[in-house]
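Standup notes
- DV: blocked on the single-chain target, sequence here:
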Amino acid sequence: MMKLSRTLALVVLFFTRTAWTQESTYPRDFFRHPLNIPMQLVANFGEIRANHWHMGLDIRTQQRVNLPVYAAGDGYVARISIEPGGFGQAIYINHPNGFTTLYGHLNAFFPELARYIKEQQYAQRSWKVNLYFPPEQFPVKKGDYIALSGSTGASEGPHVHFEIRDTKTEQCLNPLFFNFPLPDAVPPTVSRLALYDRNRSTYDQSPQLIGLVRSAGIYTVAGGLVRTGSDKISFAIGAVDHFTGSANPNGICSARLFLDGTPVTGFLLDRISYTETRYINAQLDYPYKARGGGSLQHITPLPGARTVAYESENGDGVIRLNDDEPHSVTIEVGDANKNISRIQFRVQHDAALARTYTEPSGERFLPNNVNVFEREGFELFTSELSIYDTVAVAFSATASSAAGAVSPLFGFLSASIPSHDSVTVRIKAPADLPAEQRNHIVIKNVSGGRSYVTRAQWQNGWLAARFRQFGTYQAFVDVQPPSFGAPPANLSRSSRLVFTPSDNFGIRSFTADVDGQWLRFSNDKGHSWIYDFDEKFPQGTHQLTVTVEDEAGNTTTRTWTVTR
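- DV (later): unblocked, structure below
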C-alpha cells in the first residue's frame, strides 16, 4: 500500500506540474503581440540550437526590417544591450507582475532612448554597452512604440527574438504559456525512437534505432514488441512540432515515459536559465548528431545532467528490466498547448540477445568529477561539471611545421564529445623562446571545423588557456600585426566609413579617433567596423587615426589626413 501511495503521489506530481505551470502561474492576457502584423514563428521556446535551447520566440517580420516593435505590457525599460553577436541590439522591459520581456535583433531604439544610449557610448568610448535604468527613467505603457525590428547580432534573417523571463530568477519562461495568438491543434510529429544500453556509457555505443509505425493516431513499433539483451535501458526520440497552418518545424515541449503505467522519467522545457541552457548538449545524443545522424533527445538524463529539465521517479530515470516478461511502454510527446503524441509498445529483456562488452582500456573521464590528464608537454583539466557521461580518453601528439607553431599539434577527444564547462589546457613552452615573443603567444583550438583562439597565459613555464570544446590544441607565436586599408582622402561624397581589418589569428579590438575625439564605430556580427557620419565628424580637414589590436597583443596604428 505504501508503494502504491508513493506511485500515485508521483503520478499526481508529474502531471500537475505542467498544468500548474501553464494555467495557474502565468497570466493569460497580460502581454500583447509585440508587432502589428499576424503572429508567425520562425522558432519556438525549447527548439534545438548549437550549444543551447532556443530561449524564446523568433517572430517573423515578413522578411522585412524596420517594422515598429511595441511594448508587450506596462512597465519600464530596465536594460539595453548592444553587442556584435547574440541579440545584437536588445531592449529589456520589467513589468509590475514580476516578469521581464526581451526584444532582440533590433535596428534602432525609440528616439529618447537612442539619444541617451549614444551619450553613454561616447562617454564610455565603446559601441558595445550594457546599460541599466531605474523605473522612472524610461517608463512604457502596453502598446508603446519602443524600437524598429532588424537582423542585428547573431541573426541569419529579419525577425524579432522575444523572451519572457522571471525578473527575480532570470529564468526564461515558455512564452506560449501566456496565450499569444498562435492557433495550435497539431500534436508533435515523432520520426525516430532509439534505445540505449545503460549498463555502459551512451558515449561508448551507437543508438539502436527502432522503426516506428503510425496507426489510428498512435505510434508503435513493428510487431509491437522490442527485445533487448540489456536489463538497464533508456530511450531517446527525434520529434518536431508544428502550429496549425504552418509547415515550419519547431521544438517539442515535453516527453514522458511510463513503464506499465507508472511514470519513470521525462523532461519539460518550461523554464530554463542562460546558465543552464548549455545542458542541451546532454539532452541530445551529441555524438550521434555530430556524426550527422540528426537530433535525438534523451528521455532519461545522462549522469552528469540530471537536474535540468528532467523529472525521474527513481533518481536516474533508467528503466530496469528485472525479469524476462514483456512490459508496456508509453512515451508521451507534448507541445506547449497540451497536444500529445503517444508511442506505445512492449519491451522485453532477452538474455540471449546480450552482447559482450569490454570497457575500453586506458584512462576515462567521469561525470561529476574533476578530471586530470597529464602527458609530457600537455595537460588538460576539467571541472566536475564538464563531462556528461563516461568517455574513454583519446590523445595524440603530432609534430607540426605550421607557420609560427611552437608546440606539437595535440589532439584530445574530438568535437563529437561535448564539454559543459570550460576546460583548462596547458602546453609546455619551448625553453629557447626569445624574450620578445613571450608576450605574443596564442593557443588555437580546432573543433569540428571551427577555430577558437585565446591568448596564452604563462604559468611556470607552461602556456595556459581555457576552451569549451575538445579537439586539437596548438601554441603559436604571433608577431604579425593586423592590417587594414586606407579610407579615401576625400570623404565629401561618403555617408559612412568602413574598415575590415584582417589578421592571421583574429581581431581583439578596434579604435578610431578624429582629431583626438573617439568615433562610435559599430561592429554588428563582428566582421566590419562601420561609422555613419554624424556631428562628431564635421566638414573640413581632419586627422583620422585608427588602432587595431589582434588576439596576440600586436597593434597597428595608422593616421591619415582626410577631408569631409
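- Follow-up: Confidence is low (pLDDT under 50) at residues 1-23.
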